[in-house]
Amino acid sequence: MKWLRDQTLAPIVQKVEAGERLTFAEGTQLYNTHDLNALMRLANWRKEQLHGDKVFFVHSMRLEFTNICYVGCTFCAFAAHKNEERAWDYDPDEVVRQVGRRYLPGITELHMSSGHHPNHKWDYYPAMVHKLREAYPDLQIKAFTAAEIEHLSKISKKPTLDVLRELQAAGLSAMPGGGAEIFADRVRKQVARNKVRAEKWLQIHREAHSLGMRTNATMLYGHIETLEERLDHMDRLRTLQDESVAQFGGGFHAFIPLAFQPLGNTLAQNLGKTDFTTGLDDLRNLAVARIYLDNFPHIKGYWVMIGSELTQVSLDWGVSDIDGTIQEEHIAHAAGATSPMQLSEAGMIRMIQHAGRVPVLRDAYYNELETFPLPGTNAAD
Ligand code: V47
Prior knowledge:
CATH superfamily: Aldolase class I
Order of helices and strands: HHHEEHEHEHHEHHEHEHHEHHEHHEE
Number of strands: 11
Bound molecules: ligand V47
CATH topology: TIM Barrel
């Protein structure tokens, strides 16, 4: 393999091309190689094998119904105390009004995740989903991270499976992948001490999959974790995805690395972690994910946290999904993200087409709604 600068990668390339699963040691080798060109080519090969030239995106809206949160994750700059001026807390009717304020024709997905509010009672949550479902019957509601589901289980004194069942009955369509952070205990203790434990996060996703709900998985990287801890995170997700596919016919739609945004949070202040991730670390991470997570349909390049320019480049590094138009993101922007608060549909199509790829508008279930062939090519090709 003359194109390999790092010839020690040759056995890995052979395995990936033969469709064989990589071991943890091989994943570590991928993370540590300086041959980033090889990593890019291998990840792109795998992505094209799965999706050809297609890149998926969704016309979506974000809503955080409260930023009041008692958990105290050290990476978070979004959470506020109840009596802070910047705190907000919408009741279910206000949530419906806020959706109306942001609504644009063609939006299919509403993505909601928020703080763990110390006072809301359980009834607040299914009522909110129900009201949204009534007001916007066609909107697919992707909401509540596994961390929030655990919180709802505590306040309702119901098992997490029942919480999920009742929210699903009220109209919940899918679950986002937040709250995963880094699974390794060493890191979790320092960044998310009071949040759902890794095993419980995984169990809640397993339960959602058992109910036929599709979910996503994130990984917050670029702070105090090691490369092995990133891979350990992916390894646990790969194992769960195997189980869910075997038992329930599917589980996770997408894996989404979240680049640490380092402003205005205690992790940044106390540990001196004030650097944004570098572009090549972002790309390397996406490529390793594409290669290692062989049972995940999609790796998402999250333009909010890595910027739309790098997201466009990431389409050569294994990325097959670039999330959505979003309409007002607040979590990353509270911590210093410099990307816009939203993108237009036309802007997303342009971003993908200029990378020589074919944009596919999807919904929250990954149904393909519309394809936008590259100008000058035949739609039937
Ligand atoms: O759960 C919070 C993370 C998540 C910071 O499922 C931070 O499609 C970086 O989950 N720097 C919310 N990350 C975002 C999220 C998400 C995003 C895009 C798509 C999907 C999906 C889910 O953001 C939180 C937390 O893990 N986060 N603060 C920060 N300073």
